[in-house]
């Protein structure tokens, strides 16, 4: 047997249904916020990612040469592709440009729970704005998505990379040197960060200040601890927090330890985590950045996030969230060979009326067909028998209750459309009531 590659997954129908459902909620929320979907290629020039993240990222990438000798890679994330697309073709669109995406990403990492080599990101980018309100909009969307899908016990930790960068700059540490330190702080490797800071000749006071700041976290009021610290960054962050409060966003924390090691983050940075997930607890990362100029465009400020779709799903599963299960509405069973044609005729008619319909394809007996219909969770079986067909009648069987009633073929579509269309759950009635204790015609049912 050939196995799938390490770090990849197959998704069975139940799993796919769950994934699509959650994805649809995410899309819906993004669109409610006025974001529109885009898509970019699964592979890109490797350079797109090394320009922004440095050659170190090559180790994590599925990079390869194609037959024309081009250095390509499966995309490890989507912010760079989106910005490349923007610089190439979207600069004339009205700003702010609000885009969202969903798709697979590839990273050569050590697979473990919540860490795969092929995984999915749902993300959004808001391009062309640099204001507390644009950052708040992005944080608000990411948080609202988590709320919408029913996630509990998550925390939205918000920091501002400018606060640390300001102190580093005062000490003459910028560019790559600053990034090196920020990367260590991002991983909470304080001792190692200290060694680098000492090497760069920073004063003991500044080193203490920086490490102290990365440990500041709590309600918005913790920003008061920065009293001695003067700078735009603090004021900016307060404004973001205020807007988020007005927007009613929950589970917010100021956390100046959110650093997100990468160079291109310029201001507000945030992460959403679900502590119960353990080591792989971060389900979303984001912040404001400027990348367009790296890809040959003018400098444009943007802000965005990427949700780790798979980790988010693991968190939902851990809290045992119920996801509505899709059911096939109807299964058509002809009792004789002669009635097979009629069965397909009815099947086609129901399908063209958007009633999901399955039909016996195995020439099974009634008993076996009913067993199969039950095993795949069909709602109604339609049984075609010689005697009934002479009167243009079929038997309609409620697969949940076993109740069975005759119904005229001419009324079948309408009855089923009604039974399905009014969606008993949505209408607030239960199945019993809808069927009036018995299977009844639509005119009687409402
Ligand atoms: P981590 O520190 O966990 O490696 P990251 O900083 O590399 O995360 P980002 O590049 O910000 O992650 O990607 C955004 C989100 O994508 C993460 O918050 C996480 O939920 C998810 N993610 C990242 N790498 C993987 C992976 N290998 N498998 C599954 N999800 C991932
Ligand atoms: Mg990572």
**Oligomeric state of the chains present here:** single chain
Whole-number total of structural domains: 2
Structural class: alpha+beta
Shape: elongated
Spans with pLDDT under 50 lasting ≥5 residues?
Answer: 422-437, 440-446
Percentage of residues in strands:
15-25%
Q: First CA to last CA: what distance?
A: 54 Å
- Strand order in space, largest sheet: 1-5-6-12-11-10-7-9-8
- Rg (C-alpha, Å): 29 Å
For CATH, the homologous superfamily of the largest domain is named as Bira Bifunctional Protein, Domain 2
What does this molecule look like?
This protein has 446 residues and is α+β, with helices and mostly antiparallel strands. The protein folds into two domains: 13-318, BirA Bifunctional Protein, domain 2; 330-434, Rossmann fold (3-Layer(aba) Sandwich), CATH 3.40.50.800. The protein is built from 17 helices and 17 strands. It has helices at 13-32, 47-53, 79-90, 132-148, 161-170, 175-186, 190-199, 204-214, 232-246, 309-318, 340-352, 366-375, 386-390, 409-421, 424-427, 431-434, 442-445, and strands at residues 36-37, 43-45, 63-65, 71-74, 97-106, 118-127, 155-160, 217-218, 252-255, 265-273, 282-290, 301-308, 330-334, 357-359, 380-384, 393-398, 404-408. Strands 1-5-6-12-11-10-7-9-8 form a nine-stranded mixed β-sheet. Helix 11 links the parallel strand 13 (330-334) and strand 14. Helix 1 runs antiparallel to helix 4 (132-148), helix 4 (132-148) packs across helix 9 and helix 6 (175-186) runs antiparallel to helix 7 (190-199). The radius of gyration is 29 Å and the shape is elongated.
């Amino acid at each position: 047997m050939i196995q799938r590659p390490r770090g990849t997954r197959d998704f069975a129908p139940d799993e796919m249904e769950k994934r699509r459902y959650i994805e649809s909620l995410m899309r819906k929320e993004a669109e409610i916020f006025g974001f529109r979907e885009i898509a970019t290629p699964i592979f890109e020039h490797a350079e797109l990612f090394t320009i922004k993240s440095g050659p170190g990222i090559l180790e994590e990438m599925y990079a390869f040469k194609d037959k024309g000798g081009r250095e390509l890679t499966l995309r490890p994330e989507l912010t760079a592709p989106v910005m490349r697309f923007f610089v190439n073709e979207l600069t004339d669109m009205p700003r702010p440009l609000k885009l969202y995406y969903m798709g697979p990403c590839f990273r050569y990492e050590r697979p473990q729970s919540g860490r795969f080599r092929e995984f999915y990101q749902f993300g959004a980018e808001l391009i062309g704005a640099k204001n507390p309100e644009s950052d708040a909009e992005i944080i608000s969307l990411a948080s609202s998505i988590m709320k919408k899908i029913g996630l509990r016990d998550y925390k939205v930790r918000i920091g501002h990379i400018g606060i640390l960068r300001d102190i580093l700059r005062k000490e003459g540490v910028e560019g790559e040197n600053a990034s090196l330190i920020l990367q260590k702080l991002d991983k909470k490797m304080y001792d190692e960060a200290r060694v680098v800071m000492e090497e760069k000749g920073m004063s003991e006071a500044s080193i203490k200040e920086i490490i102290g700041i990365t440990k500041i976290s709590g309600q918005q009021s913790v920003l008061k601890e920065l009293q001695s610290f003067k700078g735009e960054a603090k004021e900016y962050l307060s404004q973001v927090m205020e807007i988020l409060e007005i927007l009613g966003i929950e589970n917010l924390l100021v956390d100046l330890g959110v650093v997100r090691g990468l160079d291109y983050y310029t201001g507000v940075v945030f992460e959403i985590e679900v502590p119960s997930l353990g080591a792989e607890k971060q389900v979303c990362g984001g912040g404001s950045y400027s990348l367009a100029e790296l890809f040959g465009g003018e400098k444009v400020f943007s802000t965005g996030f990427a949700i780790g779709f798979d980790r988010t799903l693991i968190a939902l599963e851990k809290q045992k969230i119920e996801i509505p299960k899709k059911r096939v509405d109807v299964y058509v069973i002809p009792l004789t060979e002669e009635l097979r044609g009629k069965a397909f005729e009815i099947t086609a008619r129901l399908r063209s009326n958007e009633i999901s319909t399955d039909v016996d394809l195995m020439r099974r007996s009634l008993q076996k067909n009913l067993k199969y219909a039950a095993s795949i969770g069909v709602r109604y079986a339609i049984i075609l028998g010689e005697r009934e067909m002479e009167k243009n009648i079929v038997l309609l069987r409620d697969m949940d209750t076993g109740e069975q009633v005759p119904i005229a073929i001419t009324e079948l579509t309408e009855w089923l459309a009604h039974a399905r269309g009014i969606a008993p759950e949505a209408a607030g009635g239960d199945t019993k009531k809808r069927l009036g204790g018995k299977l009844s015609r639509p005119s009687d049912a409402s």
